Backbone:
């Protein structure tokens, strides 16, 4: 690809457009966190340590490249470990351009739904 064509592609898909894309499996572009907030993992990080998709965690310390967190659910309740930033590529076919974000694979999770079936009384 020549340099002129690349610049025109960058003009078409500027940072504002790429940052506004919200698709399944990607956290929002801007994630506002505080110490103590409950979060949920969006990717499997370490299955042997029960750091799987859907695991609820609580933020203990924030850093630029890692987040220290405590597990709230599962077999490892109270376990403390670090979550790194990861390269994430959306797989949604409706996205007009292929791009990559380097961010934490978590979303804020104040509430969760639990489906429970009831038998007849």
Residues:
């Amino acid at each position: 690809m020549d340099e002129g064509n690349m610049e025109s592609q960058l003009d078409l898909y500027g940072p504002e457009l790429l940052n506004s894309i919200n698709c399944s499996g990607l956290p929002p572009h801007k994630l506002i966190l505080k110490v103590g907030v409950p979060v949920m993992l969006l990717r499997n990080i370490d299955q042997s340590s029960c750091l799987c998709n859907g695991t609820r965690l609580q933020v203990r310390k924030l850093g630029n490249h890692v987040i220290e967190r405590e597990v709230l659910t599962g077999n490892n309740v109270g376990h403390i470990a670090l979550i790194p930033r990861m390269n994430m590529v959306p797989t949604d076919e409706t996205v007009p351009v292929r791009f990559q974000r380097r961010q934490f694979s978590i979303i804020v999770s104040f509430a969760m739904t639990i489906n429970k079936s009831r038998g007849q009384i």
Summary: The mean pLDDT is 77. The helical segments are 3-12, 15-20. Residues 3-108 form one domain. The chain has one domain: 3-108.
